[in-house]
Specification:
Layout lengths: L7 E3 L14 E2 H19 L2 H11 L3 H13 L8 H4 L15 H5 L16 H15 L13 H10 L11 H4 L2 H4 L7 H17 L11 H18 L2 H5 L11 H20 L7 E2 L13 H16 L2 E6 L4 H18 L4 E5 L2 H18 E2 L4 E4 L7 H11 L32 E5 L1 H4 L8 H9 L2 E5 L5 H17 L4 E5 L4 H13 L15 E6 L5 E2 L11 E8 L3 H15 L3 E5 L3 H14 L4 E4 L6 H15 L9 E5 L13 E4 L4 H8 L8 E5 L10 H11 L2 E6 L3 H9 L9 H28 L23 H7 L4 E8 L2 E4 L2 E5 L12 H4 L4 E4 L12 H4 L7 E5 L1 E3 L2 E6 L2 E6 L2 E6 L2
Parallel strand pairs: 4-10, 5-8, 5-9, 7-8, 9-10, 13-18, 14-16, 14-17, 15-16, 17-18, 20-24
Antiparallel strand pairs: 1-2, 3-6, 4-11, 11-12, 13-19, 20-21, 20-23, 21-22, 25-26, 26-27, 27-28
Helix pairs in contact: 1-3, 1-10, 1-11, 1-13, 2-11, 3-11, 6-7, 7-11, 11-19, 14-15, 15-16, 20-21, 20-28, 26-27, 26-28
Pfam families: Cas3-like_C_2 (PF22590), Cas3_HD (PF18019)
InterPro entries: Cas3-like_dom, CRISPR-assoc_Cas3_HD, CRISPR-assoc_Cas3_HD_sf, P-loop_NTPase
Keywords: Antiviral defense, ATP-binding, Helicase, Hydrolase, Metal-binding, Nucleotide-binding
């Protein structure tokens, strides 16, 4: 039977012909397009390590593996040769509105059983079901008893996952007669065409080899990434239009050979357009810091030799938060990246605001450490709509800081870049974002394996690795297991060594298949250690790092009215006529109120404000301005104070003579105190102030007990001791019976919350690389009750992004800005990229029950699902919206949300 070119693979976005019929791209052409792109991805985009993982697992020479990879990628959509797909009511139609494929159903060879058209099996699952048996026929290793353990099933399951989710194991009784269970697959001509397409893709790609190896976790991740990425690139509509075949194209073998040449010529151009090629790490300079004992000098002088001897792996850095620690983490990443042949870096932080503040330092590092062209994206919840446009707006906000010669022009992708999409953004060579992007790689969300694939070609740095609570700790351990199995170089930076840091070392050790006991992180500060990914063994530096700059932190606890204490602490700065201070307030509303009061009560004080509930670009501008005013080398004269919220505690590069904060867990207070300047930094804790809703009450209470009316500690030597004191069980013994009972109750509640969070995270996380027993479907398993809200709960506080408008115009700094631009006159859908600078992140709990003012067209866009539109009206110099039990007030100082009585 000859190949039937009427079987279509692509139609959406291809336009209509002169007669008004939808244009279609034959399925065989799309399969060959994808195979051709896979060749280029294999050659140009995969790292040598990624290729070696696949070659080693499948046990075939690299050139043969390249052909197999192209062959398998070309088979990804073979499930589209099925009744439900070809005859889908939304398929391509002629000028009269009739399905173009309708004629197939009337032909003798294409008959199908009753109900076949209603078969709900997806074309991805159909490929999985059908390919298992065909791979078995051509000699791929198979097993009736445990199909998931054999290559014939593993490759079919891998290809069936190209839509973002793998499908469950198919048993022998099903894959030998798949149309019995799923009549939509069809028999007769349908089966014959699947076999013809299969044979032609194999012939054209030259994939005659029969591999005898197995599908390891590393090979599965790399091959899945290759297939999905190739499919995405081969599906770019404007490129398909240039390759459409003329009417009457027969699809004979000679036609396919000619088309294969066309597809190969187009493939390199397609991959080059992604902004993904050519990035690598420079060779680290040989450094021998004789006599120097700083953290950075210790690592620069010893880590490259360890990596040269043992290969890349995990580096753990424990030190107080500082720019030096960040620089040490980045230098470790450079050494690991060069050794691994990595093609980029992802820098992960606890919050979007901290990612915003670190991007400048990460960018400066990239200019020195990365070779070739590279593109940088900002990746967190506020930037996810259009990451490239977020990066561009960030750069423009930092123009005064000379982030680059032409901010937003050289290193940020264009707004219309192929990377400017939330599923593809992680592939960018340089990403600065939140740790959630990592953790979702080990949760059964759509395209989680594509996340692992993106990270498998990079170095991953996790700053404040301890800052995500019990759920984050559990998921981080699973990510580190996968990272070790995939040989992903990782750098972890944490405040101090504790059980959680030791558990991270053990997880990487376990994922690398290490034997024996894992290493514990040294308790002294600063310190660093290394675990190689090849053996899982731990290595400590011959010359440990020493604290070059020590200081004496003075902590005073005040119990008066919070604002009175703030004012009293700042008056000496005003009287002296100089000094810089930061005041932490628990909420944005408190920060705005304090800012207004200080501006009025202390006229000699230069007061600044920054908090999370500001427009994205306003927050970016203010953070950039903070660097000009509060950085160590700033030449600003006169007394200055920055009023903020806990969002600032992860921001680096700021220095203050005085830090004022409400009560918080000790780790948070120490992070804020690390922003103190000089040898005797000062921290004032307002005991009577409110706590953040995200802070654990038991830890706040324990911290208050340990600090008493104040403490003086040596930094960094006393930090581990003070942390141990806060967590010590003996702390309860010092209290009277009633106080001890109350603290014990708070501790018990915290323990219950942590167990619940750990249990939920353990239930949601995917199996480890040695736990899925060859069944890739376990990486996509869908638990009953696993709703998006549960995922958000596990990933931390769910955020909603608010956009404020008045009569269709966006609001910024209390004034009307540009008009909202829609995609078309017919569909009143806004262009998501336009909204990015104007988004305001707000916790879901503050807007619970608020439907907003979006139209049905707006709500119908997946990209705007978590964007709450509010139509505001002017009132007393601000913009207000009242309704649904909430009062929203927007001014140049940000957004506040009040619950109405």
């Amino acid at each position: 039977m000859s190949l039937d070119p009427r079987l279509w693979g692509k139609a959406a976005g291809l336009g209509e012909d002169a007669r008004g019929a939808h244009r279609t791209h034959p399925l065989i052409c799309h399969l060959l397009d994808t195979a051709a792109v896979a060749e280029v991805v294999w050659d140009e985009l995969l790292t040598s390590h990624q290729r070696s993982m696949v070659v080693g697992a499948l046990q075939v020479p690299e050139e043969e593996m390249r052909a197999l990879a192209a062959f398998w990628a070309g088979l990804h959509d073979i499930g589209k040769i099925s009744v439900p797909f070809q005859l889908h009511r939304a398929g391509p139609k002629n000028a009269d509105g009739e399905l173009l494929a309708q004629e197939l159903g009337g032909e003798r060879g294409y008959g199908f059983a009753a109900g076949a058209a209603q078969d709900r099996q997806s074309h991805e699952a159909a490929a999985h079901w059908w390919l298992v048996g065909v791979f078995e026929e051509i000699g791929y290793p198979s097993s009736r008893r445990r199909p998931q353990s054999q290559l014939s099933h593993a490759v079919a399951q891998m290809l069936g996952g190209h839509g973002g989710r793998y499908h469950p194991v198919v048993r022998g009784k099903d894959y030998r007669c798949p149309a019995v269970r799923h009549p939509g697959l069809g028999t007769g001509g349908w089966e014959e065409q699947r076999r013809v397409h299969f044979d032609e893709v194999r012939r054209v790609t030259g994939a005659a080899s029969v591999p005898r190896g197995r599908m390891t976790p590393g090979a599965a991740v790399v091959l899945t990434g290759l297939v999905v990425l190739s499919d995405w690139l081969a599906s770019i509509e404007v490129e398909i239009q240039a390759r459409l075949r003329q009417e009457g194209w027969a699809g004979a073998p000679e036609d396919l050979d000619a088309y294969w040449k066309t597809a190969r010529e187009a493939a390199l151009r397609l991959v080059q357009k992604t902004d993904l090629l050519g990035t690598g790490f420079t060779r680290p300079d040989s450094v021998r810091c004789v006599g120097e004992t700083s953290l950075l000098a210790s690592m620069e002088g010893q880590l490259p030799d360890l990596v040269t001897e043992h290969g890349p792996g995990l580096v753990v850095v424990t030190s107080s938060p500082s720019e030096e620690r960040t620089e040490a983490a980045l230098q470790a990443a450079a050494a690991l990246g060069y050794a691994a042949g990595a093609r980029g870096l992802f820098y992960a932080l606890p919050t979007g605001s901290s990612a915003d503040s670190h991007m400048a330092q990460v960018h400066a590092f990239a200019e020195q450490a990365l070779t070739g062209p590279w593109r940088s994206l900002l990746l967190h919840s506020s930037s996810r709509l259009k990451p490239a446009e977020a990066a561009r707006q960030w750069a423009q906000a930092h123009t005064a800081g000379d982030v680059s010669a032409e901010p937003g022009e050289e290193w940020a992708p264009a707004a219309n870049s192929w990377l400017n999409s939330h599923h593809r953004a992680l592939l960018a060579a340089l990403g600065t974002g939140t740790v959630d992007e990592l953790l979702q790689a080990v949760m059964p969300v759509k395209f989680n394996v594509m996340r692992l694939f993106a990270f498998s070609g990079k170095v991953v740095v996790v700053d404040e690795a301890h800052a995500r609570g019990a759920w984050g700790q559990k998921l981080m351990l699973r990510f580190l297991e996968w990272a070790a199995a995939l040989r992903i170089p990782v750098v972890l930076a944490a405040l101090s060594a504790d059980k959680s840091v030791d558990a991270m070392l053990a997880a990487y050790h376990r994922g690398a298949g290490g034997a024996g006991e894992p290493m514990a992180q040294p308790r002294r500060l600063p310190a660093w250690s290394f675990v190689d990914a090849h053996s899982g063994r731990g290595h400590l530096p011959r010359q440990p790092a020493e604290a070059v700059r020590t200081s004496t932190l003075s902590i005073k606890v005040r119990d008066g009215a919070p604002y009175d204490e703030i004012q009293a602490a700042l008056v000496p700065l005003v009287e002296a006529g100089n000094g810089r201070a930061v005041v932490y307030r628990p909420t944005p509303a408190d920060a705005i109120t304090t800012f207004c009061q200080l501006s009025q009560d202390l006229p000699g004080l230069d007061v600044s404000l920054v908090h999370e509930q500001m427009h994205n670009k306003d927050r970016w501008r203010r953070l950039a301005a903070c660097r000009d005013t509060f950085s160590p080398g700033a030449g600003i004269s006169g007394p200055s104070v920055l009023v903020t919220t806990p969002m600032l505690e992860h921001v680096r590069g700021l220095r203050f003579d005085l830090v004022v904060s409400g009560p918080a867990p000790l780790a948070g207070l120490l992070a804020r105190a690390a922003q103190g300047a000089g040898d005797r930094p000062r921290l004032v804790v307002l005991q009577a102030d409110d706590t953040s809703e995200l802070d654990d009450v038991a830890l706040v209470r324990r911290t208050g007990m340990v600090l008493g009316v104040g403490r003086t500690i040596s930094m960094p030597q006393d930090v581990p001791l003070l942390l141990d004191e806060v967590y010590a069980d003996e702390l309860v013994d010092r209290l009277g019976e009633a106080a001890a009972r109350e603290l014990q109750q708070l501790d018990n509640r915290r323990a219950v919350r942590e167990r619940r969070a750990t249990g939920t995270a353990g239930w949601l996380q995917v199996p480890g690389p040695r736990e899925h027993d060859g069944d890739l479907g376990l990486l996509s398993r869908d638990h009953p009750g696993m709703e998006p809200e549960l995922l958000s709960c596990v990933l931390g506080e769910e955020m909603v992004h608010v956009v404020c408008l008045h009569q269709g115009s966006l609001l910024e700094d209390g004034v009307l800005k540009e008009k909202l631009v829609f995609e078309s006159k017919r569909k009143r859908r806004p262009k998501p990229g336009q909204l990015v600078p104007y988004l305001i992140p707000v916790p879901q709990r503050l807007v619970e029950g608020v439907a907003g003012d979006a139209s049905s067209d707006w709500r119908g866009m997946a990209a705007l699902k978590n964007v709450l539109r509010l139509n505001m009206v002017p009132e007393d110099g601000t913009w207000v919206r009242t309704g649904e039990g909430r009062r929203f007030r927007l001014s140049g100082l940000g957004l506040t949300v009040d619950q109405l009585p």
